[in-house]
Amino acid sequence: MITVKTDAEIACMRESGKLTKNVLDLIGREIRIGMTTKELDKIAYDYIKSCGAYPSFLGYSGYPASICASIDDVVVHGIPSDDVVIKDGQLVSIDVGVVYNGWQGDAARTFMVGNVSQEKRKLVKVTEECFFKAIERLRDGTPLGDIGYQVQTHAENNGFSVVRALVGHGIGREMHEDPTVPNYGKKGTGIRLKKGMTIAIEPMINAGVYQVDFMSDGWTVRTRDRKPSAHYENTIAITENGVEILTL
Amino acid sequence: MAKAVKQGDLVKSIAGRDAGKTFLVVSVKEKFAFVVDGKTRKTVKPKKKNVKHLEKFSNVSIIELAEKIKNGIPVGNDRVYRAVKTEQQKLQED
């Protein structure tokens, strides 16, 4: 069931969104070559707890960490580990969720560490652009399919591909609510968005083929051709004349 | 965190003639999931559904059962039906 939030509820989500953004900003400042992804997880956990919030990923369907740290060919859901050391030239996608006063915030960024190749730079840039293209014309009454159409068109025009097996989602009191927000699709299809809906739009763009493999740990998702992938996500609220980004 | 339908998940169909029914995900291949419920969709012929037409029903995962069905190991349809129903009831009680 799709929930429509009141202005007061969106104000609460703004708070959790702000915390989510702060965590990503903090990680952006701290991330460096030689660090392990477990260290990043600890930074995020400590910050979230110090704000009186809770990391929504921790314990979600048994997920063991506060963030997802996905390096290069790992699309999403990379589990932070002491064994994963960040190296020069890598793309590190950090996905984080914060629950504050019962409301969720969810966002992700891909950080470029050290000397990153031109192709990877372009991939990260296009992934971010996909998100902003998707929200450009969103407003009360826009069909949901327009989001996927914009993301897919922009990514494919730049020679990249869009992951199909994972999708964006509605968000509110629960991290994963309705509707499902695919990054592919046809213009003018799907339900019409309404003022007060809150959704997480998250383009996951691959440099190679769109197919992905789910690893045996039950979480890690890697590109099938092991080429790099980038991820960018924000929680947004639909308003009468556009959208409000709650995690930026 | 991106939403993904995974093997062993209990899902609810939100589109098609089976909309509203609960299923167990036997396997996932890109944007399609193969689902069974032990009654209308039996283990010998799982239903192919687009993952965007499914929503996760609960955080419970019945991976052992799904793995057996995927690998062709005989699993009684009644067992699948009972497993799906039990989880459905638990959730309603909560």
| Count of spatially separate domains of chain A | 1
Count of helical regions of chain B = 2
Helix content of chain A: 25-40%
Global outline of chain A? globular
The third-level CATH topology of chain B is SH3 type barrels
**How many distinct beta strands of chain A?**
15
Q: Report on the biggest sheet of chain A.
A: 5 strands, antiparallel
CATH topology of chain A: Creatine Amidinohydrolase
* Main interface: chain pair and counts: A-B, 32 and 17 residues
CATH architect. name of chain A:
Alpha-Beta Complex
What's the count of strands of chain B?
A: 6
Which oligomeric form is depicted?
Answer: heterodimer
Name the CATH architecture of chain B. Roll
Q: Calculate Rg of chain A over CA atoms.
A: 17 Å
Mean pLDDT of chain A: 93
Which class best fits the helix and strand makeup of chain A? alpha+beta
